Amino acid sequence: MTPTQGATPAVAFAGAAKAYGDVRAVDGVDLRIERGETVALLGRNGAGKSTTIALLLGLCPPDAGTVELFGGPPERAVHAGRVGAMLQEARAVPRVTVAELVGFVGGRYPAPMPVGQALELAGIAQLAGRRVDRLSGGQLQRVRFALALAGRPDLLVLDEPTAALDVEARHAFWRSMRAYAGRGSTVLFSTHYLEEAEAHADRILVVDRGRIVADGTGDELRRAAGGSRVSFDLAGRPTEDLTLLPGVRSLEVRGDRALLRTEDSDATVIALARLGAIRGLEVAPASLDDAFLALTTTAPVPEKESVR
Amino acid sequence: MRDYLLLETRRTLRDPGFVVGGVAVPVLMYLLFTNLGGDAGDWKTGAMVGMAAYGAVGSALNTGGGVAEDRAVGWLRQLRVTPMRPHQVVVGRALTASVTVLPAITAVLAAGGLVNGVRLDAWQWAALAVLLWLGSVPFTLLGLGNGYRLTGQTTGVANMVANLGLAVLGGLWFPLALFPEWLRAVSAYTPTNRFAQLGTSVATGHAPPGGAILVLTGWLLAFGAYAVLSYRRGAATD
């Protein structure tokens, strides 16, 4: 799992951009993923995760900038069998069994794993003889995971791999993913679950409106977003002056309770004590949710923005 | 490539729509059309060629339906992230069609020889099968063109309209002798008519006429261009 610095990175984006009409799905992304890293692409729906992945896999060319895998164009790495991918919108391939499909896809790669092993890793060994178009959504998702693994790729790309899985299947999935990553492969997965990103990635890239707005471990993101939150009962007290207190970065009022995000909880609490505003006072470390909200745009995106 | 061909052939043969529409229907229609209303004589041979051609056209077009379906479910996109080259996928699909037209041709010819007592020399049977097989290529390209351009449902409709329209107009179902003069003139330019002509000429002991080869080559180029343009458009959005 130790990233190999210095060698050609597994993934390198330089100023990559892709627009669909007026929508800038990917808006100038610079990004470098070293070999052996496990990286999460975290963002809301529509933040640009899937387009980033489409660019990375060479499914569409960037409008501007460059995208490279292992020091060359994505198509070359894909053709050389170095990339395995689990695509998000894929549905069941009709009239084929699980083992046939996984065996076929694995067989395109130079050094695939045995079909049984791929099915085992994906937790679907018992489904080998079943027709793919007769599986449940969760089973199908695991088939797609097996397709991504089957060729034993150097770079495994997983677009929202756990979206249709129940809790148990989700745990099994992450165990398998970690086992695979542990062999020295590079793994990139996208998710909108913060806990998954923190628990299973060495590094989190936060994507918002087509840009990478933060890059680091969960702890680093928390720090970047402001260290702690302090809350207390307002009891009818006005709130205008609270944002001026030392350390405070933002204020949120929930019912009669004020919630302050602060970089320096000690200074904030002392100042609150001077004001006598300490009823029901609580200090807690910022959650990753808070970090995520602080890093991404919370304002609702207008349904339609006319530029003409 | 061999694996892809095997996989797609297997998938096609598992499709009940293909087995019924592409094999059973031509055979049944052939037996019905030639055994209702007394002695059909020569028409037993003509209809055999016509229905084998009809079945081959249906199976060839069906390949396009498969492509539209594969696009819709994301299978073609999945293939694009494997080491397979895009052109290998297209060629593989076209080759699949060349395999899956064989059941229709074989079944109708077998019905002619075994049930309807059509008697031809061994070389005629062989040449007939080979010409029907080769002549189905333009229709495969038409089907692929539809499959890469249209959605699954519209591909199905487009293929059906093309299949029925070209079959009737080309005289695969009814003898051309029943057509009015002007329609016969139109029919001579249809790919289906010329496709069947390849077969009937051999069945009557002649070499295929140059006109048939000329017209079919024209359609081959036209449908080939259509398939290439559709593929470029379809591949850009998938």
From TrEMBL, chain A:
InterPro entries to which the protein is assigned, alphabetical: AAA+_ATPase (IPR003593), ABC_transporter-like_ATP-bd (IPR003439), ABC_transporter-like_CS (IPR017871), ABC_transporter_ATP-binding (IPR050763), P-loop_NTPase (IPR027417)
Subcellular location as annotated: Cell membrane
Every ABC transporter domain range: 11-234
Keyword Transport tagged: yes
CDD domains attached to this UniProt entry: ABC_DR_subfamily_A (cd03230)
Single Gene Ontology MF annotation: ATP binding
PROSITE patterns named in the record: ABC_TRANSPORTER_1, ABC_TRANSPORTER_2
SMART domains: AAA
Keywords: Antibiotic resistance, ATP-binding, Nucleotide-binding, Transport
Protein topology in the membrane: Peripheral membrane protein
Coiled-coil ranges from the UniProt annotation: none
Stated name of the protein: ABC transporter ATP-binding protein
Organism encoding this protein: Streptomyces hyderabadensis
Automatic annotation (TrEMBL), chain B:
Keywords on record: Antibiotic resistance, Membrane, Transmembrane, Transmembrane helix
Keyword check for Transmembrane: yes
Membrane topology: Multi-pass membrane protein
Membrane-spanning parts: 12-33, 45-68, 89-111, 123-144, 156-176, 210-229
Superkingdom in the source lineage: Bacteria
Compartments where located: Membrane
InterPro entries: ABC2_TM (IPR013525), ABC_2_transport (IPR000412), T7SS_ABC-Transporter (IPR051328)
Pfam families noted in UniProt: ABC2_membrane
Record domain ABC-2 type transporter transmembrane: where: 8-192
Protein name: ABC transporter permease
Biological source species: Streptomyces hyderabadensis
